[in-house]
Amino acid sequence: MIPKSNPNWWRSIFSISLLFLLGFSGIAQNSNGTYTEFSGYIGFDYRQFFNDGLYTGQKTSYPSFVVQPEFLHEWNNGDDRLKFIGFGRFDRDSRRTHFDVRELYYQKVKGNWELSIGLKKIFWGVTESVHLVDIINQTDFVESFDGEEKLGQPMVQFSYTTGIGTFDLFYLPYFRKRVFPGSRGRLRTPFIIGESDVAFESQAEETRPSFGARWSTYTGPFDIGLSYFSGTGREPFFRTVNNGDFQLFYGVIDQVGLDVQATTGPMLWKVETIVRKSDFQDMWAIAAGFEYSFYNIAESGLDIGVVAEYLHDDRGLLSFSSLDNDVFAGARFAFNDTQSTEFLVGGIFDLEKSTTLWSIEGSRRFGNSWKGEIEMRLFDNVDPREFLNFVREDSFLQISLNKYF
Predict the structure, then answer these.
(1) Are 103 and 118 in contact (CB under 8 A)?
(2) Number of Cβ within a 10 Å radius of residue 110
(3) Helix extents (H) in 90-167
(4) Which residue segments constitute the domains of the chain, with CATH numbers given?
(5) Rounded to two decimals, what is the model's pTM?
């Protein structure tokens, strides 16, 4: 993340990325087995909050500009690859104004093994509402409330494919802290989290290496993933210190995860579960449910998928996400038109408390290179005991328009 104290350097990176897209986007493919592609997008986001903020300095409107340059070069008929994905945002909140290298790695493919070295994004998981097993990358918390956006993670990844599945091994030499909104930002705590408010269990702090492993396979209708992680946990938790202030703490954890998806005709059955052990906080969590699809309704081309999932976290009120005993229910609409119009509408309902979180996500292409997106989050009757109580007035609507190259 780019520090607040050096905005000129951030603007330089942003400007270079913009010029890169405008001047160099395109594809070059040669007969000698090399392939080069410059691509990405630039865009404008507008986020409107429906209520005044709870804390001093917060606004109701947040326009921002984004840029994501991408570069891919392959040679030796794709056996060697160099990939780069950057991301930058210029926003009213100084903490949300940032530039990140999402991916920058070299990959070698040889027979049934692959080796990747550099910064990379790895995704694990099958459920819709939460991704319990997804632990390799740190969440880009200032970018998205739902945790879908991730920071690039330095790593060495080795993948080996066999007749019984694929084995992935990860060496993660550096830890990236989660960044929270600043004083002018929304979706934040009443206190601003600075460098002095962060503590680690390990004396090596960010330089303590972590390790991960995953076995994935498919058999019949089942896609199965079994994972293990050992190192500094990506999810922090709040604790109080001697003077009564809050402190963000990263502990050393061991986590075992299982994700399974079964496809039976139009029905998808999904489950993710984890067991996490540490000297400070043990936990067990599960997300399980289904998605049933109705295809080409009344020969209109419209597909509707009905989604339902149960979410449990045995930490209860200590859960950072507040999803300790909840149900997610929603519907996915795919119009199967040339503009790829689709929407996901849903809600998370707490089974023990009054809290409800409504959400709408949608996207549609315009022409050959434009894409519009909409996102809405509504916090309803938030229980004062939950972590979400800090953001109970932060319901918002976001509209985005991106130009792809």
Answers:
(1) yes
(2) 10
(3) none
(4) 7-404 (2.40.160.10)
(5) 0.91
- The DSSP annotation for 191-248 comes to S---GGGEEESSTTGGGS-EEEEEEEEEETTEEEEEEEEEEE-SS-EEEE-TTS-EEE
The closest of 284, 289, 348 to 316, measured between CA atoms, is 284
Tokens encoding 404:
């792809």
> Residue 352 in contact with residue 317, Cβ under 8 Å?
no
Taken in order 388, 390, 392, 394, is the CA torsion positive or negative?
negative
Task: State how far the Cα of 359 lies from the Cα of 109, in Å rounded to an integer.
Answer: 41
pLDDT along the chain (405 residues), means of 10: 47 63 70 88 97 95 96 95 96 93 97 98 96 97 90 98 98 95 92 86 97 97 98 89 80 98 97 96 96 92 97 85 90 95 97 95 96 97 90 97 96
Report the distance separating Cα 405 and Cα 400, nearest Å.
16
